[in-house]
Please model this.
Amino acid sequence: MRTKAIIHLNRFKNNFCSVQARIGSKRHICVSVKADAYGHGALQIAKKSLELGAYCLGVATVAEGANLRKGGIKAPIMLLSQSHPNEIPEIIKSDLTPFISDIEFASILNDSAKAAKQKIPVHMKIDSGMGRIGCSVKEAVSLARHIASCTKLKLTGTATHLAAADSANPKDIEYTNQQLTGFKKAVTAIKAAGINPGIIHAANSGGIILHPDSWLDMVRPGILLYGYKAVHEYELPLANMKKISKLKTLMVEPVMELISSVVLIKKIKKGESVSYGRTWIAENDTYIAVLPVGYADGLPRLASNKWQVVINGEEYPLVGRVCMDQCCVDLGPKPVVQRWDEALIFGADIVPEQSDKPVINHSAAALADVTGTIPYEITCNINKRVPRVYK
Ligand SMILES: *Cc1c(COP(=O)(O)O)cnc(C)c1O
Model:
């Protein structure tokens, strides 16, 4: 295989268990499997999650939810984004649980449900400060009353989403606390109006790491389960360390490894260039390995001349521009690498056997740092043409 993404389900399991241990066994987990489980394969991750005790799954689109149903998933599937009325027949058919932000959509949904003679579970979404979907804290009771009056809707949960839970900056901590206060106030008011709000939930990965107050009845991790901390612990301001250190460090490991192979080795002479635009010129005679992986596979073009791949435990720089389907690495003048050897593009950080050697930061998070993005975008962008191999 030219290039493949290994998905380590045992690591996913360990990450899942770390999250469950942190929040306690009584709280539910909704696994975010949107965007094909951040590139890891939605159906496989969904099945594994449910086997591990996940309560439900979160998707972004109706098609993502319908595909899980076609794959045999029976657990509740929440639609985390606002859908379009023309998708309602499929929402009903696939028994998805939409987030409801407003009276208008609730009514449209209720009318369709009546026509289909089916009851639809819904979660009410409250915008406590994300500024995206959801009703305002003030509107919460009237929306809850409206949903309660819709005979074909069943309110099974009430949710909010945190805008800055992944930041340990004191201002962001304060903002998250304000969001949680607003959300809890709305939930209390809904209960006071005699309406059962169902399962109450707010936390994404950042909330799980930094905000125990956000755990409530259920958490909705995504990135953390795929092995990346939304929060860079080394960036935590000292003032927050005390508060945060009360929480144990959460151990997670990257689930995806992107592996390519050396398909050609060639000698080039001092002064010769490699790849488009001639951005890299050999300073000495050297050997170049060609790898069949490019930006169409999801290796960012911005990694050109900035990233190292690991072959047999050693790092080699990506030289010249990353092309659509290929890239090149400099093996040096006396290469030990052989044709057809595997090349690790990213995966877990590599801890060398000899303790005097430094750890090689080689995760999608490190690649994201180098290319100005976040690990979410790196794993989501691993193209469909890269086969996933489950281990
Ligand atoms: C994507 C998403 C999550 C998961 O976010 P992570 O940062 O990956 O943990 C949780 N809740 C909602 C509403 C989402 O859209």
The radius of gyration is 24 Å. The pocket of pyridoxal-5'-phosphate is lined by residues 32, 34, 80, 161, 204-205, 220-224, 230 (CB under 6 Å).
